[in-house]
Amino acid sequence: MEIIHVSAECYPVAKVGGLADVVGALPKYQQNLGHTAKVVMPMYRTAFLYRHEWDVVHKGRTHMGNWWYEYTVIKEHDNELGFDLYLIDIYGLLDREGIYGYADDSERFTAFQVAFVDWLGGWNHRPDIVHVHDHHTGLIPFMMQYSADYGHLKGIKTILTIHNAQYQGWMGWGKGTYLPRYDMWKSGLLDWNGTINPLACAIRCAWKVTTVSPSYMEELRYSANGLEPLFEYEKGKCIGILNGIDTQVWDTETDPYLGTHYNSDTVEAGKSAHKLELCKRFHLDPSKPLIIFIGRFALEKAADLLPTVIGDAFHYIGRTMNFLILGSGDPNVEGRLANLQSMVAQDYHAFIGYNEQLSHQMYAGADFLLMPSRVEPCGLNQMYALRYGTVPIVRSTGGLKDTVIDYGDWQGFGVRFEHANVGDITHGIYRALELYQDKVRFDEIRQRIMHIDHSWENSASEYIALYLS
Ligand code: ADP
């Protein structure tokens, strides 16, 4: 089968979160299964672009309404990622340093999608599957199915994977003219509550819809930022497939970001070395358990609760643990977490920013990873933590529920709590510290979790089975 993934992110080309990790790994594993998988994404000005050689494979000209523009498709010369990688360059729109967050994001991603469909329309063969990811590529199934200009793409099977249903790409109907000519009788497919909603449109128009964990699929029928009835209505074509992790990138024995390599036999010494390094760098006490948080400071991640949780933990449990935070996002949360440092230095440090290397070192050096998420479609951090021998403390939601078993349950290994509130999170931390005191059990768990298999092999096969269906 020939599968074309279309996405706004792909690791290591451009990454904001888990979407990049998935699109950087899934095609590689699909290739290993004997299929041809390709990735098409916008050409941003990221370091990856400048470090690699590119071949121009297509130059085209298309339009959004009255605005005509030229686009160029380039392909990575050395196939370094293990699959064909294509970038679409649209001068002035996509070629920026950032990925999202511009006032004209609607124009940027619509232009990208129109260019993709225009390019695909010129191919002299048809791929078997066009697999789109999240709202940034959500108009593609509609265009392929209903645009008069690309009638010959009608019938190519499209799959939508939802990595996060909170963001839907809403845009006013004034931008309806951006789409290539389409059957006006079908305009209702674009609409949700009076605006163009690319995610809703893709849910309706894709042949199959997947979410990145089975529990998240269930939850969307009750909580989907306004799209609940649509998920209920379309449930027949929706399925949850748990993400995998790239075990070649995330490998404690070869990870280039780690100075000391280790495996489950040497987990204690390996993790101690990393913990020592982290504690030295951030002036923390290595004799105390180290609890980390890594992620975007967005409402979904409940990072806004961390300052109160940390204050309460120190107050009620005592200064018996260290916290190390890595993340960025909401400036208010960034400010509160940075300010906390002056009050509880020595047991706490917040690194505000994005730092891939530090994240690897933190998974390696931490005792616990805290994920109090309000919403967590799958969550990759907890799977990386497991593989690096770090015990996850998670809220029972979405993919966290599907991947972490509480240590009080049969074959358990992590800490789970019900609600994303300060009381439940603090209690989760308390239970984690209790586990830490039981050294024999804690060590046994650390060794065991490093062997839990969350590799892509299983999930990649599930996607292939879905395509075949
Ligand atoms: P989401 O996609 O919702 O942000 P995921 O858990 O699916 O959450 O994926 C998050 C990914 O981004 C992980 O690989 C995590 O290590 C990484 N990450 C998040 N924030 C940072 C940061 N500040 N620095 C380094 N890596 C980060």
Mean pLDDT score: 96
Global morphology: globular
Category from helices, strands and their pairing: alpha/beta
What is the count of β-strands?
17
Helical proportion, percent range = 25-40%
Give me the side-by-side strand order of the main sheet: 3-4-5-2-1-6-7-10-11
Total of DSSP H or I helical runs spanning 4+ residues: 16
Question: What amount of the residues lies in strands?
Answer: 15-25%
Radius of gyration: 23 Å
Distance between the termini: 13 Å
CATH class of the largest domain: Alpha Beta
> CATH superfamily membership of the largest domain, which one?
Glycogen Phosphorylase B
Give me the CATH architecture of the largest domain, please. 3-Layer(aba) Sandwich
Largest sheet: 9 strands, mixed
Number of domains: 2
Low-confidence region ranges? none
**What ligands does this structure carry?**
adenosine-5'-diphosphate
Structure write-up:
- By secondary structure, this protein is α/β, with parallel strands linked by helices.
- The protein has 2 domains: 255 residues, Rossmann fold (3-Layer(aba) Sandwich), CATH 3.40.50; 186 residues, Rossmann fold (3-Layer(aba) Sandwich).
- The chain contains 16 helices and 17 strands.
- The strands form 3 sheets. A 9-stranded mixed sheet has the order 3-4-5-2-1-6-7-10-11, sandwiched between helices.
- The longest helix is centred in the first third of the chain and has 17 residues.
- The site of adenosine-5'-diphosphate has 18 residues, from helix 1, strand 12, strand 13 and helix 11.
